[in-house]
């Protein structure tokens, strides 16, 4: 009887959600890839099959779930999978999305001086956002871009 009770209590404990205060961060949240190579797996362990290999440090990912050193993430294309938490950075990053070039301007306004243009798929560091515009840094080239052209800039 005691073994059954212990097994039941352990099973219930495993099903009880971990409070947000016990987690590193409250989900969902943004993170970026910090490793030169990151494997996305089908489950939260090295025992699970690799679904995808990322070779883009700085790529933003949305963290959906936390599980003992692993994070369930979604990428800009909508692909979901598990990655090792040690290969993620809390730094905010963005990727340019949408059609055509995205203008990087001197200020958060369409009439501000054009500094550079960024192609779809360009990754940058997110500095700040204000009134539908975000200031980003792409390899030292800093400018303001409309927020709707950036994945990783909004609330997760």
Topology overview:
Layout: H1 2-15, E1 29-33, E2 38-41, E3 50-54, E4 60-67, E5 70-74, E6 80-84, E7 88-89, E8 93-96, E9 102-105, E10 114-118, E11 123-130, E12 133-138, E13 141-146, E14 150-151
Antiparallel strand pairs: 1-4, 1-7, 2-3, 4-5, 5-6, 8-11, 8-14, 9-10, 11-12, 12-13
Question: Would you summarize the structure shown here?
Answer:
The protein is mostly beta strands and 156 residues long. The chain contains one helix and 14 strands.
What is the 3D shape? elongated
Task: Work out the helicity level.
Answer: under 10%
CATH architecture of the largest domain: Roll
Low-confidence stretches at least 5 residues in length (pLDDT < 50)?
1-23
Structural class: mainly beta
Report the sheet-strand fraction: 35-45%
Fourth-tier CATH superfamily name of the largest domain: SH3 Domains
Mean pLDDT: 89
Question: What are the defining features of this structure?
Answer:
SH3 type barrels, 44% strand, 5-stranded antiparallel β-sheet, disordered N terminus, 156 residues
What does this structure look like?
The protein is mostly beta strands. It folds into 2 domains: about 70 residues, SH3 Domains (SH3 type barrels, Roll); about 60 residues, SH3 Domains (SH3 type barrels, Roll). Helices cover about 10% and strands about 45% of the residues. It has 1 helix and 14 strands. The strands form 4 sheets. The protein has a 5-stranded antiparallel beta sheet, with no helix packed on it. The chain has a 5-stranded antiparallel beta sheet with strand order 13-12-11-8-14, with no helix packed on it.
